[in-house]
Write a structure and sequence with these properties.
alpha+beta; five-stranded antiparallel sheet
Length: about 350
Amino acid sequence: MAEEDRSEANMAMIREAESKQTATKDSIFRIQRQLAETETIGGHTLEELRKQGSQMDDISNDLDKVSAKLDTSSSLQNTFDKWAGNWWGGKKKAAINEANAEIAQRNAEEMSKVKEVFEHETFHTTSRVWKASGLYLCTDSSVRAPDLFDPASQTAESNWMIDFGMTGIDAEGWTYAYDFATLNKPPFGKPTADWNCYVRRRKWRFHEKKAAGGGALTEVKERNQARLEKVRPAPTQAEKIGYVSRAQQAKMSASGLASSSMMSRSRGAAAADQDLDEDSAAGLQQLKHNDAEINAGLAQISDSLDRLGAIAGEMKNETVSQTKKLERIDEGMTRAGDKTAVVNARQKFLLR
């Protein structure tokens, strides 16, 4: 009778373990399917990014061709000036002045669209105070921005607000360093001023006017969200997979189904199996089979994560490359636009 009770207890524990193994296998299968879909999407996205990069190369090459043609046009205009007797270049100078005015106006309009700037200050060792050093573009901190606003006169109701979502800042949003070049290199300055910190900067962002109190409320929400994203811990791999612990095996020992006989790969495993009744032994074999499937599934998930990591790395490299290409395109468009303004202005003066 004791043997029957023991067998029944063993089978109850086996059924419980198998139920949890089944749930674990279901979780692994769902993760495998999701990873496969993510991998497919990632592959397609990477392919599209590469096509986009190729299109950027074509655009950049076309801009170079346009720039070369504009240079040819300028050279022909110089020749025409000589033929027309404009030896002193009076018309050319007037045209260039007009073109420069047009270029300056266009640049001013572009600058007026800037929504983020750095406020620079330098420390004067003689007076021992911080003094304003102007506003600079966040995209290129070597380029000075126009005086879009006065940082000293901004209030909680102003459109321009300090960006407290930045890392490494003090209570007023400042980051300190020896010089401004140091602020552009990791770790991008310090949140406190040391004895050798002679410059500092803070970031300002433009916000559209909202309803009464809306702007301040939005800013508070943005700050809180930024802080949450910094402190929220990433889920562990175990939490993502939902792998079931084998802790219940300890309870099996009391019923005669030792954990070593169920999961161990030791030399005594076969001998321990022989001590079980036929149903328990068969259930134990099924548990081992399930365990092997779980291990294989986890290995496949690991391989999928490795492939996704490789895809993510390629996407990052492509994004960095495209950022540089966009900068080159922007420079090419600016250069072509300036040359076009000069050629058009000269053409008008030549026809007068």
